[in-house]
């Protein structure tokens, strides 16, 4: 925890060009086998995490390319770049890829995989082969989805609302449903693996009250993955059955009910929002504690709030249907429950803020990402409350206000946390430090670019600009131009971390065990860790985040 | 490019301005709830920056009372707004009984409106100022959503059922009317104008777009053409329920339930006759699902509704 353990100033990174392999690296998991098959057939949770990292990064840029097309097209009211059909396909690709192949797997499958065994003092996950299998299922589902979306073309949006998807849409809806169905098994298997691991493989002394908050949030996420994903699978099977065999389930012409589809879809997809954001909340807790070098304020409340979010999150799906024709009383209940789910989220935000009080706050890149996460998540959460208010939702439902709201949560929140996690644990994963200056610069640019892109969309939404509109009234153009300029900045800023992190793999200085001076078992092993993580299984005898009290700087 | 930025949408009803008041007040609340977070993060990051001397004594790691209070107090404030917003929302479900009734049929990708006297229009909706208007909406194909931003209202139009909303526009003018639920390739072009006219102008408009017959009369014609009168007419030999005075009255069903004969019930009885069978009648009515479109059904509903009033005058 001395200054020598902190990352070296960035200038030294550039001077030590092409550092040769260190002794730690030679015995690390990264060098335990050099062949392609040693990666593709690995059962090491850390290597599988790297496989996921590569995969989700690939899908992130695919989804991002679709977003770029959308934003460029919206520069002009008449939409000069794409046709109506092409635009609809672009936002379908964007939504499907970003939701199922980036946001849902991003933090749990990369950082959860890498960190859970390290954080709880285990040598691997409970089912290493299942872990590898779920990566293959994920890749099969992902590549198949991509093929269907691009070659076949699907224009229903990621929500696949019936009867548009089942009876009217062009393109390969059934194939897309099959692809997402396949990917769902990867989610279920990963969730199951995490649950069993967290229950059974904690090292001696690692009681539930001593679990790092990231592990708590991944545990809550896994419960949702296991319970909610099957409902999505059922729904997709029913769509396929209706489209292929003409069974009347959702289509009123066949005696079905379109609202049934929405109930089933959101019964999965609203909890799925928490699958996307809970891991990010866990990352934020880790980063805030490390940034302030203090225990998290109110550990129990923060840990318990993750579980509360997971449970209440199952009971709010109807807030997507306030104007869909559901009963007024159902809407009133769902509105109330949606306010209730804000309470545990609010606890987290306030507790993080309190954690910073009297801390030793570092503004290194991971912590800048964490602070921008808190800000953007707060805006996203509070605008969610606006949407939960029935009379307001009637006006802003299905407008850009909703688009802005969920991008504040998903992109401002989850993607910021993903980059925060990447910057924080990168030295552990790879064993090298990276340029802090570039890191800070990209954190700031991402924050600015994000707000420039999405804040104007709140205004557009209240003005009455519906979502999924390819052509729009000219009076909205100026705000759309702001948004597109912001998206350009955001796109550039998103590439930067991948550039400087890649550079660090070759030119970064060795990181040492604990470059941030943080607590946690993952920082007690070498960077990068050896294949089996711990030479001897550790024994835990204290609460997490027990940072030394440093009062020598006081003048009071 | 249109250089001016509009930051607030036009507003054409008292309900709309009430929604705006709610939004203003609620925004104040969320600023109050979140400002401490934004301000304190910056203040702490500056004051307690690592390596900077500061008083860091007595830092606490938990305080249950503080935590409980910042869970409960914001929630109580939210409950107040919940009541306000829900009360406003509930009004949309209670149209005045004397409202002007206009039928809406949505289909890929157009809006059709039918006034009681039979005037029809496409992608334009003319209404009189200051008079409550009730919309009964049906979709011919997929889900659409009628969105009139100036009124702050929106309602999905769902195939297989009627949905509805109502409003009283209080400011003459031309506003946007649009589809808010993604409905396929040309979703973004499915819109038009919502035109609020003074009562005199509305009467003039009705006269100009005159029509041969009212909706109810058109329904009566369909009633004969499609053979409905063969069973339901006064001279029918088949044992079928009489429709005079039916609308709005309770109907005992074979299942033992009693339902009120509203628009939805009549629609279902025409298109899905086996769904709810009136007690004491054989289930012999054929479906008209593939024979009648939503506009026809709405005309028949208007006709059956009109039988209520003729009954009363007889």
From TrEMBL, chain A:
<feature type="domain" description="Cytochrome oxidase subunit I profile">
    <location>
        <begin position="39"/>
        <end position="541"/>
    </location>
</feature>
<keyword id="KW-0249">Electron transport</keyword>
<dbReference type="InterPro" id="IPR036927">
    <property type="entry name" value="Cyt_c_oxase-like_su1_sf"/>
</dbReference>
<feature type="region of interest" description="Disordered">
    <location>
        <begin position="1"/>
        <end position="20"/>
    </location>
</feature>
<feature type="transmembrane region" description="Helical">
    <location>
        <begin position="329"/>
        <end position="347"/>
    </location>
</feature>
<feature type="transmembrane region" description="Helical">
    <location>
        <begin position="216"/>
        <end position="240"/>
    </location>
</feature>
<feature type="transmembrane region" description="Helical">
    <location>
        <begin position="132"/>
        <end position="154"/>
    </location>
</feature>
<keyword id="KW-0479">Metal-binding</keyword>
<keyword id="KW-0408">Iron</keyword>
<dbReference type="Pfam" id="PF00115">
    <property type="entry name" value="COX1"/>
</dbReference>
<protein>
    <submittedName>
        <fullName>Cytochrome c oxidase subunit 1</fullName>
    </submittedName>
</protein>
<feature type="transmembrane region" description="Helical">
    <location>
        <begin position="90"/>
        <end position="111"/>
    </location>
</feature>
<feature type="transmembrane region" description="Helical">
    <location>
        <begin position="367"/>
        <end position="392"/>
    </location>
</feature>
<dbReference type="InterPro" id="IPR000883">
    <property type="entry name" value="Cyt_C_Oxase_1"/>
</dbReference>
<dbReference type="InterPro" id="IPR023616">
    <property type="entry name" value="Cyt_c_oxase-like_su1_dom"/>
</dbReference>
<feature type="transmembrane region" description="Helical">
    <location>
        <begin position="437"/>
        <end position="459"/>
    </location>
</feature>
<dbReference type="GO" id="GO:0015990">
    <property type="term" value="P:electron transport coupled proton transport"/>
</dbReference>
<dbReference type="GO" id="GO:0004129">
    <property type="term" value="F:cytochrome-c oxidase activity"/>
</dbReference>
<dbReference type="GO" id="GO:0020037">
    <property type="term" value="F:heme binding"/>
</dbReference>
<keyword id="KW-0679">Respiratory chain</keyword>
<feature type="transmembrane region" description="Helical">
    <location>
        <begin position="479"/>
        <end position="503"/>
    </location>
</feature>
<keyword id="KW-0813">Transport</keyword>
TrEMBL record, chain B:
<dbReference type="GO" id="GO:0042773">
    <property type="term" value="P:ATP synthesis coupled electron transport"/>
</dbReference>
<comment type="similarity">
    <text>Belongs to the cytochrome c oxidase subunit 2 family.</text>
</comment>
<keyword id="KW-0813">Transport</keyword>
<protein>
    <recommendedName>
        <fullName>cytochrome-c oxidase</fullName>
        <ecNumber>7.1.1.9</ecNumber>
    </recommendedName>
</protein>
<keyword id="KW-0249">Electron transport</keyword>
<keyword id="KW-0186">Copper</keyword>
<keyword id="KW-1278">Translocase</keyword>
<keyword id="KW-0479">Metal-binding</keyword>
<feature type="domain" description="Cytochrome oxidase subunit II copper A binding">
    <location>
        <begin position="97"/>
        <end position="208"/>
    </location>
</feature>
<dbReference type="InterPro" id="IPR009056">
    <property type="entry name" value="Cyt_c-like_dom"/>
</dbReference>
<dbReference type="InterPro" id="IPR014222">
    <property type="entry name" value="Cyt_c_oxidase_su2"/>
</dbReference>
<dbReference type="GO" id="GO:0016020">
    <property type="term" value="C:membrane"/>
</dbReference>
<keyword id="KW-0812">Transmembrane</keyword>
<dbReference type="InterPro" id="IPR036257">
    <property type="entry name" value="Cyt_c_oxidase_su2_TM_sf"/>
</dbReference>
<feature type="domain" description="Cytochrome c">
    <location>
        <begin position="214"/>
        <end position="308"/>
    </location>
</feature>
<keyword id="KW-0472">Membrane</keyword>
<keyword id="KW-0349">Heme</keyword>
<dbReference type="InterPro" id="IPR001505">
    <property type="entry name" value="Copper_CuA"/>
</dbReference>
<dbReference type="Pfam" id="PF00034">
    <property type="entry name" value="Cytochrom_C"/>
</dbReference>
<dbReference type="InterPro" id="IPR045187">
    <property type="entry name" value="CcO_II"/>
</dbReference>
<dbReference type="GO" id="GO:0016491">
    <property type="term" value="F:oxidoreductase activity"/>
</dbReference>
<feature type="transmembrane region" description="Helical">
    <location>
        <begin position="22"/>
        <end position="44"/>
    </location>
</feature>
């Amino acid at each position: 925890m001395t200054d020598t353990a902190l990352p070296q100033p960035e200038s030294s990174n550039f001077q030590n060009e092409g550092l040769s392999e260190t002794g730690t690296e030679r015995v690390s998991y990264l060098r335990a086998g050099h062949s392609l098959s040693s990666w593709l057939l690995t059962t090491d949770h850390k290597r599988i995490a790297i496989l996921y990292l590569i995969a989700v990064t690939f899908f992130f840029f695919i989804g991002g390319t679709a977003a770029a097309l959308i934003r460029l097209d919206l520069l002009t009211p008449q939409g000069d770049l794409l046709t109506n059909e092409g635009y609809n396909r672009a936002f379908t690709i964007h939504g499907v890829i970003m939701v199922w192949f980036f946001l849902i797997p991003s933090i749990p499958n990369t950082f959860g995989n890498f960190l859970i065994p390290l954080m709880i003092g285990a040598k691997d996950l409970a089912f290493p082969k299942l872990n590898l299998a779920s990566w293959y299922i994920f890749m099969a589902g992902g590549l198949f989805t991509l093929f269907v979306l691009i070659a076949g073309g699907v224009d229903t949006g990621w929500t696949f609302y019936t009867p548009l998807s089942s009876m009217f849409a062009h393109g390969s809806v059934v194939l897309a449903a099959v692809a997402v169905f396949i990917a769902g098994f990867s989610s279920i298997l990963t969730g199951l693996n995490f649950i069993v691991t967290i229950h059974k493989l904690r090292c001696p002394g690692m009681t539930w009250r001593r679990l790092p908050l990231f592990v708590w949030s991944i545990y809550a996420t896994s419960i949702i993955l296991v319970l909610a994903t099957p409902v999505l699978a059922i729904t997709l099977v029913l769509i396929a059955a209706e489209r292929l065999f003409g069974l009347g389930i959702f289509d009123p012409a066949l005696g079905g009910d379109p609202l049934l589809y929405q109930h089933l879809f959101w019964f999965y997809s609203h909890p799925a929002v928490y699958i996307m954001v809970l891991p990010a909340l866990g990352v934020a807790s880790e980063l805030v504690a490390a940034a302030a070098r203090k225990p998290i304020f109110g550990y129990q409340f923060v840990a318990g709030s993750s579980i509360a979010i997971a449970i209440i999150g199952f009971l709010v799906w109807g807030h997507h249907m306030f104007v869909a024709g559901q009963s007024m009383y159902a809407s009133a209940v769902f509105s109330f429950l949606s306010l209730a789910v804000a309470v545990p989220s609010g606890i987290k935000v306030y507790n993080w803020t309190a954690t910073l009080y009297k801390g030793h706050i570092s503004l290194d890149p991971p912590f800048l990402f964490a602070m921008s996460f808190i800000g953007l998540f707060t805006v996203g959460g509070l605008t969610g409350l606006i949407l939960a208010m029935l009379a307001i939702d009637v006006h802003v439902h299905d407008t850009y206000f909703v688009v802005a709201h969920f991008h504040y949560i998903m992109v401002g929140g989850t993607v910021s946390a993903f980059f925060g996690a990447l910057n924080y644990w990168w030295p552990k994963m790879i064993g090298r430090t990276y340029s802090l200056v570039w890191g800070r610069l990209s954190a700031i640019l991402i924050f600015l670019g994000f707000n420039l892109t999405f804040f104007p969309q709140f205004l557009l939404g209240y003005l009455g600009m519906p979502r999924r509109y390819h052509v729009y009234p000219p009076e909205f153009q100026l705000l759309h131009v702001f948004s597109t300029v912001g998206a350009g900045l955001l796109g550039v800023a998103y590439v930067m971390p991948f550039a400087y992190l890649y550079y660090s793999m070759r030119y970064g200085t060795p990181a040492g065990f604990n470059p941030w001076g943080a607590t946690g078992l993952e920082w007690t092993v070498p960077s990068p860790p050896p294949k089996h993580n711990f030479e001897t299984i550790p024994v835990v005898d204290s609460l997490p985040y027990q940072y030394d009290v440093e009062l020598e700087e006081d003048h009071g | 490019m249109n250089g001016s930025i509009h930051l607030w949408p036009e507003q054409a009803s008292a309900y709309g301005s009430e929604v705006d008041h709610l939004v203003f007040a609620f925004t104040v609340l969320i600023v109050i709830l979140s400002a401490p977070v934004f301000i304190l993060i910056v203040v702490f990051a500056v004051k307690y920056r690592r390596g900077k001397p500061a008083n860091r004594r007595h830092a606490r790691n938990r305080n249950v009372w503080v935590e409980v209070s910042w869970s409960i107090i914001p929630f109580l404030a939210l409950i107040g707004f919940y009541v306000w917003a829900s009360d406003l929302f509930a009004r949309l479900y209670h149209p005045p009984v004397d409202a002007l009734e206009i039928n809406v049929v949505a289909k890929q990708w157009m809006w059709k409106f039918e006034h009681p006297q039979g005037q029809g229009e496409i992608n334009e909706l003319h209404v009189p100022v200051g008079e409550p208007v009730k919309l009964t909406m049906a979709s011919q194909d997929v889900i659409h959503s009628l969105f009139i931003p100036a009124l702050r209202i929106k309602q999905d139009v769902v195939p297989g059922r009627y949905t509805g909303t109502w409003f009283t526009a209080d400011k003459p003018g031309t506003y946007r009317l649009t589809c808010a639920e993604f409905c396929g390739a040309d979703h973004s072009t499915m819109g038009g104008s919502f035109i609020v006219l003074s009562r005199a102008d509305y009467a003039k408009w009705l006269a100009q777009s005159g029509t041969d017959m009212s909706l109810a009369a058109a329904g009566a014609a369909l009633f004969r053409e499609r053979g409905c009168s063969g069973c339901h007419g006064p001279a029918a030999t088949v044992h079928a329920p009489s429709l005079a005075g039916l609308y709005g009255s309770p109907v005992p069903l074979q299942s033992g339930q009693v339902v009120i004969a509203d628009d939805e019930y009549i629609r279902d009885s025409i298109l899905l006759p086996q769904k709810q069978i009136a007690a004491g009648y054989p289930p012999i009515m054929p479906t008209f699902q593939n024979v009648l479109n939503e506009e026809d059904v709405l005309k028949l509903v208007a006709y059956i509704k009109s039988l209520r009033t003729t009954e009363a005058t007889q």
